[in-house]
Amino acid sequence: MKLTSKTDLEAPIGFVYATLADFPTWEREVVRRGVEIERPADSPQIGKGATWRVRAPYRGKVRKVQIQVTDAVQDDKLVFGIDAPSIEGTSMLELISLSPRRTRLRLTLDVRPKTLAARLFINTLRLAKRRVDTRFDKRVTQLAARIEEMYQRSRSQEKV
Fold it and tell me: Which of 17, 51, 58, 96 could form a disulfide with 68 if both were Cys (CB 3.0 to 4.6 A apart)?
């Protein structure tokens, strides 16, 4: 199943990429939400090859997922590989500079089932595709708003 969403941000592309690639900040954010996250000892801290082992409750069960940065191009894109016992997939965040202070963020999530149960779950999501797309768009818009807010705070701190 493939989900795609795009949104425009009132922030320069360099700031947006730096914010998205600030992995320690995102790690702290997910830990605050009750997710267990572990970095393998041989994993680089940033860039291609950075890996996380994640344990998170979802639908009444603790799910284990491994996420790895498979490609990172400065001010262009971040690609993550997703591997779990029942699914695998990729997530790609692409950035396009629309102007010096405006950036387009395009997020693509492609998930493939590995098990029969996962296949049934993904087929159920396909039946509710419109609702799933709406929720996905809403989350991407919330992410964009958060990045814009961070940019506005950084600009106001520079003026002081």
Answer: 51
